[in-house]
Design goal:
The protein has helices spanning 43-58, 67-83, 85-96, 100-120, 156-169, 184-195, 210-219, 232-244, 267-279, 296-311, 330-345, 378-381, 397-404, 420-429, and strands spanning 6-7, 9-11, 14-16, 23-28, 33-39, 135-142, 146-150, 173-178, 203-207, 223-229, 249-252, 257-261, 289-295, 349-352, 368-371, 388-394, 412-416, 434-437, 456-457, 471-478. It is of the alpha/beta class. The protein has two domains: 6-253 and 451-476, Aldehyde Dehydrogenase, Chain A, domain 1, CATH 3.40.605.10; 257-437, Aldehyde Dehydrogenase, Chain A, domain 2 (3-Layer(aba) Sandwich). Helix 5 (156-169) links the parallel strand 7 and strand 8 (173-178). The protein binds nicotinamide-adenine-dinucleotide.
Length: 494
């Protein structure tokens, strides 16, 4: 798919080269070869994109549209992606390194978000508030204006689609800052918006680095809403900037999600959950299964079963649908290697893996399992964003829940047991935005998703997501009496 043409930014309905002429090279993580060159958006492009999005808002282009028509626009974007689904999946697979099957799933999920929120566009209603005679009172759920959307590289297509769809459904205009390591999926969304005939400036897609382009975008005075999906560390910086101008944010941050496995669990289900939850996309999933908390009586047996599973995983490029695909970059892999070294130095027992697969030209890392991971160790607390599982044993349900909730994050969690009472008791106490029972990634497009504690706040997915894209305004109307006299407000306390 090598493309020698410079891919431009999508601003105000046009494809524009960057004023600075600087470029970003995009790698195939499976072999480190350059697959595309993208124009790097700088402050000038941020200015143009926000100006276009702000004009769309100021002129009420989306707000005055019938919500049904905003929804239909999103359906057309979904249709445009679907029409080129195979091509877009290939691009997504090659730039992120994930499997082709996974990339096809990502395309399908992106389409689902666009159709789901397109369908909800005309169902978001305000309310009428009874206030006695002479007063009519109602609420309006209004957009914020220009929504700046900062996207990470692990699922760039579906994450761009999910925030953009909510914003357009509710009448906000959008400037996306796509991830510098995987910008091509965002470009494909822009192409789909163009062919779907969205009004110029309603959606703008920029590619640039976070600390320059991303920072300039969130600092822009006409940005009135930020959706940030990324790491806790960057999230803090984003929030500091947002606090200067009191800009509301949706924060979708990282996690260190734990699965509690009781001794009566179906261990085949658990191993399958680990295969998908820990190792899919080389573990680069915000809600991946990164900690396995196992009832002590079955800990050795389960660790052995997981080890056998890992030994059977194939390693290779995503386009061959191998089980273990590369990490996104050399830097990412070095971070994961360091996390493994630290785990060893802090007394964890290496069961399998633990090293980079440096005989390969891409950024491959061995699927890794550590047992006896202590609750005060780094591996227990810090997101590695790599194919690394930390196993810790527990003695009773109370201890299991304490361990599960024993980090600063709270994105997802899970419980495996055949006992319904224990499943419900545990799920109720798992302090995470989403809890899975007897499986992993059990949530979907229509189920609310987001963090607790340092995993962030606000919700994406599900109907709840729309609440984060609107602000409630209230209108009170005083009614004149038939006599024509204008009576003052009646009926009790203000
Ligand atoms: P990151 O925080 O390094 O970068 C995320 C995005 O922020 C990138 O587009 C980057 O360019 C941009 N950025 C960096 N500095 C910025 C700044 N000062 N101002 C504005 N933008 C800036 O994260 P990453 O490495 O790209 O992604 C991995 C992280 O994302 C993991 O922590 C993962 O858990 C998290 N994530 C969360 C979710 C979720 O829904 N909760 C989904 C996917 C990934």
């Amino acid at each position: 798919m090598a493309n020698t043409d410079v891919i431009k930014n999508f601003i105000d309905g046009e494809w524009r080269d960057s004023v600075s002429g600087t470029r970003i090279e995009v790698d195939d993580p499976s072999n480190a070869e350059t697959i595309a060159v993208v124009a790097e958006a700088g402050p000038e492009e941020v200015e143009l994109a926000v100006a276009a999005a702000h004009r769309v808002f100021r002129e009420r282009v989306l707000i005055d549209m019938h919500p049904y028509d905003r929804g239909r626009m999103l359906f057309r974007v979904a249709d445009a992606i679907e029409a080129r689904g195979d091509e877009i999946a290939t691009i997504n697979c090659i730039e992120t390194g994930k499997t082709l099957n996974g990339a096809h799933d990502e395309v399908r999920t992106a389409i689902r978000y666009l159709r789901y929120y397109g369908g909800l566009a005309d169902k978001l209603e305000g309310r009428s508030i009874p206030r006695g005679a002479n007063l009519v009172d109602y609420t309006v759920r209004s957009p914020f204006g220009v929504s700046a959307q900062i996207v990470p590289w692990n699922n760039p297509l579906e994450l761009t689609a999910r925030s953009l769809a909510c914003a357009i459904a509710t009448g906000n205009s959008v400037v996306v800052k796509s991830p510098e390591l995987a910008p091509l999926s965002g470009i494909e969304i822009a192409r789909a918006c163009e062919s779907a005939g969205l009004p110029a400036g309603a959606v703008n897609v920029l590619t640039g680095y976070g600390q320059t382009t991303g920072q300039a975008l969130i600092e822009h005075p006409d940005v009135r809403h930020i959706v940030f999906t990324g790491s806790v560390v960057t999230g803090r910086t984003v929030l500091k900037t947002a606090s200067e101008r009191i800009v509301p944010c949706i924060m979708e941050l990282g996690g260190k999600s734990a699965a509690v496995v009781y001794s009566d669990a179906n261990l085949d289900c658990v191993v399958e959950a680990v295969r998908i939850g820990t190792f899919f996309n080389a573990g680069q999933n915000c809600n991946g299964l990164t900690r396995l908390l196992v009832e002590r009586s079955i800990a050795d047996e389960l660790v052995e079963r997981v080890k056998v599973c890992v030994e059977g995983l194939s390693v290779g490029p995503g386009r061959e649908n191998c089980d273990i695909t590369p990490l996104i970059s050399q830097k990412q892999r070095q971070g994961v290697e360091r996390a493994c070294e630290t785990a060893l130095s802090q007394g964890a027992r290496l069961v399998i893996g633990g090293t980079a697969l440096s005989e390969r030209s891409g950024y491959f890392m061995a699927a890794t399992v550590f047992a006896d991971v202590a609750r005060d160790s780094s591996l227990f607390h810090k997101e590695t964003f790599g194919p690394v599982l930390a196993v810790t044993a527990f003695d009773n349900p109370k201890m299991a829940v304490e361990l599960a909730n024993g980090t600063d994050q709270g994105l997802a969690a899970g419980v495996f047991t055949r006992n319904l009472d224990r499943a419900l008791w545990t799920a109720d106490r798992l302090w995470a935005g989403q809890a899975y029972v007897n499986g992993w990634y059990v949530g979907g497009v229509e189920t609310p998703f987001g963090g607790i504690n340092q995993s962030g706040y606000g919700r994406e997915k599900g109907q709840e997501a729309l609440d984060g894209y609107v602000q409630t305004r209230n209108v009170g109307i005083q009614i004149s009496q038939p006599s024509g006299s204008c009576s003052s407000r009646q009926g009790g306390t203000p």
